[in-house]
Description:
Elements: E1 12-19, E2 22-29, E3 40-44, E4 47-48, H1 52-66, E5 74-79, H2 101-117, H3 138-149, E6 163-168, E7 172-177, E8 180-185, H4 186-197, E9 206-215, H5 221-233, E10 237-242, E11 245-251, H6 260-269, H7 275-286, H8 296-307, E12 322-327, H9 328-334
Parallel strand pairs: 3-5
Antiparallel strand pairs: 1-2, 2-5, 3-4, 6-7, 7-8, 8-12, 9-11, 10-11
Helix pairs in contact: 1-2, 4-7, 4-8, 6-7
Amino acid sequence: MAEVIFEKPLDPVYLDHSNPPISIKGLLDRGRLYPDRKREVLSVNGRVIRSHILQKVIEDVTSKVIGDKGFPFIIIDLRLPSNFIDVNIHPAKLEIKILDESRVYSEVYNAIYNTMIGKAIPYIEPKVEETIPQIVKDEEIAIYEQKTLIPEVKEEEGIFPLEPLGQYLNTFIVCTSSKGIYLVDQHVAHERILFDSFGEIKSLPQFLLEPKYVELYNIPYEILEFIVNNLNQIGFECDIGGPDSIVIRAIPSFLKDIDIDTALNDFLESKDLDINNLKREIACKSAVKLGDRLSIEEMRELLDRLSKLKNYKFCPHGRPIIIELIDRDSVFKKFGR
């Protein structure tokens, strides 16, 4: 038997985008990421295919929005006119060649990006009737199937504002809203807030009382230079301090407690010398930790800052930030109300 690889989606939403002559429809799970592409189903004009450009755009937009290089559960059907596809590719082959790659890249990127960050139409599992009339016309069959497979849906509503009740294990914030009761992982929530702040630097850097020297042993000069340039790009002020070190004179004002030594060494050990990964490591090493006791006011401030983010569901490494313990209607139902 074939291996089952499609877990039930956590937050499935419809993907629907049209900019003639290109249209894109499909399904996207915003609830989790995976380490491989097994859950990507790509088709062009109804034919399942493999395409480097479509795989690249999915990776690029996921990295941009979530800050990680994981892969989502996604089903895409891309509709293209014939002049967008190389007709010399044999129709029996999975690989196809898209001729206007830049246009297709842009349209697919916008479709996935807007679905990931914006209000989207949630997917509702269809309720299929047990019996189908035996004698019907072809048009009636088409209408019946359309009603069954495309149920009426409502626009997703937000869960904010959240009001904190306290902490569980000094790690998770227990909070409520009009929608239900939730748990928020304080570390990854703060990590996401800090990560997104790198793209919204509006204040001057915060200068240190004394320059901070960070030792980075046994790495080429080019890598030292690369790290310095990228740190300066995201709000630090630093220079190369010697053959095995950099000197930091100022840090972004939104970073309070930062373990820059560990962040930079973990960044180098990861072998992923990408600026997003650098921001991830710095945000992770600057965020509140598991086990840190927070006051109600500190929790409230964290939740308020989280509510202002477009992507409040994932940390930059792809882990969930918030989970629903129970929704409002279920609470009343359990108490017989």
